[in-house]
Design a protein that fits this description.
With 71 residues, this protein is mainly α. It has one helix and two strands; from the N terminus they run ββα. The chain has a two-stranded antiparallel sheet. Strand 1 and strand 2 form a beta hairpin. It is elongated and about 60 Å long. One of its GO terms (molecular function) is DNA binding. This is Transposase IS200-like domain-containing protein. Pfam families: Y1_Tnp. InterPro entries: Transposase_17 (IPR002686), Transposase_17_sf (IPR036515).
C-alpha cells in the first residue's frame, strides 16, 4: 500500500489535515502613514515576532508599502 507524503508543518487529526497561513493587512483611516520611521516599523516587527513566539507560530515577513501620494 502506498502512503502519501506528509505536508510540512501540517497538523494531522483523525479526519482532517490543517495547514493555516495568515496574511494580515492593516489599512488606516484615509490611508494615513503610520510607520513613518524605521524605528516605528522595527517596533511593530518586534511586537509581531513576540506574539508569534508566545503562540508557537512562525512570523515570516513584514512589507511596508508607501502611500501612492507619498514622495
Amino acid at each position: 500500500m502506498m502512503t502519501k507524503e506528509k505536508i510540512k508543518d501540517a497538523i494531522y487529526t483523525r479526519r482532517y489535515i490543517y495547514n493555516f497561513h495568515y496574511h494580515l493587512i492593516w489599512v488606516t483611516k484615509y490611508r494615513n502613514q503610520t510607520f513613518t520611521t524605521e524605528v516605528l516599523a522595527n517596533e511593530m516587527k518586534a511586537i509581531l515576532q513576540q506574539v508569534a513566539d508566545d503562540n508557537d507560530k512562525k512570523y515570516t515577513e513584514t512589507n511596508k508599502k508607501p502611500h501612492k501620494g507619498a514622495q
